[in-house]
Amino acid sequence: MSQPLLEASHLDYVYGPGCAAVSDVSLQVSEATMTAVIGANGSGKSTLIRMLSGLLRPQSGSIVLNGVPFDDWEPRLRARQIAYMPQTTATAFPFRVIDLVLSGRTPHTLRFRFESVRDAEIAMKALEVAGAAHLADRPFTSLSGGERQMVILARALAQEPRVLLLDEPSSALDLKHRADLIRTLSRLRAANGLSIVMITHDLQLTGTFDQVVALHEGKVAASGPPREVLKDVLLREIFQDQNVRSQQVGEQTLVWVDL
Amino acid sequence: MTAPASKRIVLAIVTLTALLAVSVVIGVSVGNQHIDLTTIFSDPFSQTLFFRLRLPRVLMGLVIGASLAVCGAALQALFRNPLADPYTLGVSGGGALGASIAIAFGWSARFFGIPLVFMTSFVGAMVAVTLVRAIARTGAVVLPGALLLSGVAVNLVSAAGVLTIQYMADSASALRILRWLVGSLDVVGLDSIYRMTAILAPAWIALLLLSRQLNLLAMDEDTAVTLGVNIRRCEMMVHALCSLIVGVTVSTGGAIGFVGLIVPHAVRLMFGEDLRIVLPGSLLLGASFLILADALARSAMPSTELPVGAITGLMGGPAFLWLLRRRQQYSAM
User: Fold this and answer.
1) Which residues, including other chains, have CB under 8 Å from residue A185's CB and lie 6 or more apart?
2) Contact A114 B327 (CB under 8 A)
3) CA A147 to each of CA A86, A154, A169, B166: distance values in angstroms, whole numbers, following the listed order
4) Measured between alpha carbons, how far is A213 from A229 in angstroms, rounded to an integer?
């Protein structure tokens, strides 16, 4: 394997005494791959992705992007490489959807310039790819939770990153839109060489991913191809439930819990 | 589809500059004494009235209105709270307490040519905004309710402080504090306008230079950070600049309320949410707004003048309640 695009080594993050969120987590993301981060609530998934996005500084360990240590990147240039899609966006102001998506162009525009016609085209294209073009002129505050997720995905895509970090992007999406999201991300991986790191509780959706990283109490419990990681024994341990079942059906791994 | 931001800002600046020009003409024409504007260079009485009283008062309205409105727009974006403004966050209150301390010791004290009252007012405003933010921020989020409530608390404490100083000061100082507290644009001559503008204009420009960062912050704090905004630096700059601007205006014109609340929202309704338009738009519209409010204050009663703070308060209170109601309708957040 060539030099990974994004490499995190031995990351630690402690919020307070006695509650380590992440300890000794390492992760490699190669170009044009999809990585799922799974684990129970409070297992450190969001903390990990917030460190990868630059929102939190790891207390020890290192993150290297494209061969350059994270802290050596100028923030604006780093933003051209990595985009982060938060779980929710609670803006108090009724920004229009297209303006919100256009703001994703910030790392590519000069400081005292407005976005160009080309930026507007890229933003519109990103909305189409995310399946939200019909929302372009709506105020963001009038959208449903699922529509908001599609719009903030478009915003991250307008950034034209090489690595896309997603924190539960499908949590408010219906069945069809969940499938659409994965199809879209797979297409971007193939067509643009985009690398994706995605936190998700939809274990079914990870069948087409290149690797799954399972976190348990802040540590990596297992990582590898989906069919190796999504095994009953491991899932029972990380979710602390003896009734978790998983089954391989063709390319898909079905995971459910006996009630 | 609506015009892109680069077109909207031109429209906004042209429209609001025209409105400001009209407001200035109305402002200098209104008053107890009628001035025939064609005679201000020939008739000495008209000349004195115009250049010593009328024009300075209008310019004072312009400078203070622009200052409060641009700070309101910046604070709303920084705290992602449509109800934030220098008055509701207690920044004006803190500034007022700082100013009254200096007034009790005498107006005219200077340090290196800068009036002492500007400095104490700036410090008071800075303490208030720092305190309010520290209370309202828990972890990564600024709680909107806690922000406004701590603003109320800072205002109450400041008001009590001002009252105490007023009681302890000699009667001349006490009267000066009382007159100034109500919020008035009374000014004689242009000297104090020059002094204020020398400090305020650079601060306005510095604030306008932050409008792109503030636009990203108003949308979402986390995404703003990942897009390259240095949030700590931006926050400190806005705190310092707004405290400076509010400090200087409060120490001269008193705590004139709600200008920073109403004006940015009016600009938003006209030209959209983009802070790169809302900030310069608020600067211009704030100037017009306070000039017109003061013209109304001077002409509402046949025999006497109302303080302009009373007019803005009467308009701002209902506007605040309307915004609060509208905010509750969004409260999916």
Assistant:
1) A34, A164, A194, A196, A198
2) no
3) 14, 11, 11, 56
4) 8
Q: How far apart are CA A65 and CA A68, in angstroms?
A: 5
For the segment B177-232, what is each residue's pLDDT rounded down to a tens digit?
A: 877 776 677 777 788 889 899 999 999 999 999 999 999 999 988 999 999 999 88
Cα separation of A135 and A137, whole Å? Answer: 6
Amino acid sitting at position B242 = C
- Partner-chain contact B226 A79, CB within 8 Å: yes
Average pLDDT over residues B123-149: 83
The string of DSSP letters for B119-152 reads HHHHHHHHHHHHHHHHHHEETTEE-HHHHHHHHH
Map out the domains of chain B with their CATH numbers: 3-332 (1.10.3470.10)
| Closest Cα in chain A, distance from residue B229 (Å) | 8
Whether the Cβ atoms of residue B8 and residue B19 lie closer than 8 Å to each other: no
Exposure of B149 by Cβ count < 10 A (0-12 exposed, 13-18 middle, 19+ buried)? Answer: middle
Closest Cα in chain A to B140: A55
Q: Which residues of B touch A55 (CB under 8 A)?
A: 222, 225-226
Q: Three-state SS for B35?
A: coil
How far apart, in whole angstroms, are the C-alpha atoms of residue A23 and residue A45?
Answer: 11
pLDDT at B183: 67
Q: Report chain B's C-alpha Rg in angstroms.
A: 20
CB A177 within 8 A of CB B41: no
Measured CA to CA, the distance from residue A6 to residue A165 in angstroms comes to 11
Which tokens is A6 given? 């994004």
Q: What ipTM was reported for this prediction? A: 0.91
| Tokens encoding A35 | 């990585």
A114, A149, A159, best to mutate vs chain B, most B CBs in 10 Å? A114
Q: Which residues of chain B have a Cβ shorter than 8 Å from any chain A Cβ?
A: 1-2, 4-6, 9, 80-82, 144, 212, 215-216, 218-220, 222-223, 225-230, 268, 272-274, 276, 327, 330, 332-333
Q: Cβ atoms within 10 A of the Cβ of A159, count? A: 26
